[in-house]
Design goal:
There is one protein chain. With 154 residues, this protein is α+β, with helices and mostly antiparallel strands. 52% of the residues lie in helices and 16% in strands. The longest helix has 13 residues.
Length: 154
Amino acid sequence: MDMVEKQCIQALFTAKDYMELYRTQKPTIDLMLGIEEQWEFEDFLEEEDSLEEAPFWLYYSVIQGELLEIGGYEEDVTEKVAAFLQKKLPKAEFQSIAAYLQDLYVDIDERDNLEEKIELCNQCLAGAGYSIQVEHDDTYCTWDYFLSVQHTRT
């Protein structure tokens, strides 16, 4: 994450200059709010009057390629999660967890095995110095998961 860009974004949040934030970070805000046009954001601001900063940074990290966003009702996310983890992990570590990345399913109203399967992956990865983090947010949507890979060894 570019520190200058991050500081500029932080300054816009501090100043509550949400329209300028939208102009400079449109892809992030569009993804976060599920909108496509500026007039939709203007309607949002009339209704809400502010923008939460914590979820913004999650979606910003998705746009930067650091996190993977998974909607709460995406159902079969096997390919999506496997492709993300294959990019983020060394080949040997990815191969060690590939068996656990079968039949990943997300539907928060029915059955959802994402966190359970990621925990199994983390057990395999512990000795290699990697872990897969799962975060969630429901500020502006029903439920979104966010996956990231952390290198735990220095």
